[in-house]
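Please decode residue identities from the backbone states below.
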């Protein structure tokens, strides 16, 4: 089911990636090394560990798993998804230009606009659904192209391989936020990206109990400065969180299969509901770039947005507040289904005029379909929306 370079199937990889029996005890799970420092036999004589900001055995196992899941050679763990984004941004300098999607995760856009634009880094936010819009802004100052596909919350699809092709022979690096698709559905590194970023908080952790970020690369030269920043800044996760994510990853393949099946069932139900206006799910045949999604993804995921025919704020608010199985909450990617109102919640930091241009209107509702039974999810939406 995976597009991996390696011959190992994705589920086998997810169960075994990064984890080796503990050499001192044989423990099948990597122990939680709750230790900040490591005793040295003589000055500079140690077993590979000196101080846990730099490296920790539990985090090492997780970072190896991260690299393997994305078909990369290097993985880095951060204390949040945004800390991972920040590490990439710290490699830039004043005068550099960035081309980024115009429908990015709100926090990513806020980080760019609040902290990096004032330092003299220029951002071009473009609709990357058409790679020509990336080409139009590419110049000799461009150092980074930042993509999300599918995007949050409109599920827009960008042809990653086509953008990578544009950057051939250009010094700009291509970074893809792969949070929504997960490595079970697409591997941007094999499509030509230089850096993959994840909010591990979402599907990789999968159980809504950890905040964490990751960067994966397939090139030691891309990895080296990021690794230096990870150590110099120290936005690293603790060993207990690393253990929880190592555990979460083992079921990533089977969880994502159920997220996708529920996504399909709910999207098709919404599409057939006369009270629903637009449905945003890349698996629908008439969705823009559905063919690109089919080519670069194994399935279409469990994230869906939709609008209602009655497009008042009051009605969409009522729907969000009357589901029983779907919990009203920000975030996504956990085993439990969530519902939220982007304009009032996750995307409140996006300026209203920008939201209007994108189509994040007062009627838009976003669902993260969990792994419950599809019949229960549909029954819950039916009582909340009517049909
Ligand atoms: C949540 C999220 C982030 C930010 O990650 P945190 O772990 O919350 O810092 C970045 N990108 C996407 C697509 C996300 O959903």
């Amino acid at each position: 089911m995976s597009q991996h370079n390696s011959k190992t199937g994705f589920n086998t990889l997810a169960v075994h990636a990064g984890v080796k029996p503990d050499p001192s005890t044989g423990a099948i799970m990597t122990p939680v090394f709750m230790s900040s420092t490591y005793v040295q036999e003589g000055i500079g004589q140690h077993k590979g560990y000196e101080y846990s900001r730099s490296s920790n055995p539990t985090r090492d196992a997780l970072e190896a798993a991260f690299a393997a899941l994305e078909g990369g050679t290097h993985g880095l763990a951060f204390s949040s998804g945004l800390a991972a984004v920040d590490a990439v941004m710290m490699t830039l300098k004043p005068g550099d230009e960035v081309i980024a999607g115009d429908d990015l995760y709100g926090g990513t856009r806020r980080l760019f606009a609040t902290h990096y634009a004032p330092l003299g880094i220029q951002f071009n936010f473009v609709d990357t659904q058409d790679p020509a819009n990336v080409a139009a802004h590419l110049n000799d100052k461009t150092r980074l192209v930042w993509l999300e596909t599918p995007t949050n919350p409109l599920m827009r699809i960008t042809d990653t391989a086509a953008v990578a092709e544009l950057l051939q022979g250009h010094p700009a690096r291509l970074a893809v936020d792969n949070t929504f698709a997960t490595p079970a559905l697409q591997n941007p590194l094999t499509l030509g990206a230089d850096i993959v970023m994840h909010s591990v908080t979402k599907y990789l952790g999968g159980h809504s109990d950890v905040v964490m970020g990751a960067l994966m690369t397939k090139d030691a030269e891309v990895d080296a400065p990021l690794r230096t920043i990870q150590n110099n800044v120290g936005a690293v996760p603790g060993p207990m969180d690393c253990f929880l994510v190592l555990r979460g990853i083992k079921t990533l393949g089977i969880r994502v299969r159920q997220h996708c099946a529920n996504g399909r069932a709910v999207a098709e139900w919404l599409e057939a509901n006369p009270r629903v206006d637009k449905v945003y799910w890349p698996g629908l045949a008439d969705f823009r770039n559905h063919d690109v999604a089919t080519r670069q993804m194994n399935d279409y995921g469990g994230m869906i947005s939709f609008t209602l025919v009655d497009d008042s704020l009051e009605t969409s608010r009522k729907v969000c507040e009357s589901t029983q199985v779907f919990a009203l909450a920000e975030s996504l990617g956990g085993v439990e289904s969530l519902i939220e109102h982007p304009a009032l919640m996750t995307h409140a930091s996006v300026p209203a005029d920008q939201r209007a241009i994108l189509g994040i209107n007062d009627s838009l509702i976003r669902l993260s379909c969990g792994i419950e039974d599809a019949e229960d999810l549909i029954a819950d939406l039916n009582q909340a929306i009517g049909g």
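Observation: The two ends are 35 Å apart (CA to CA).
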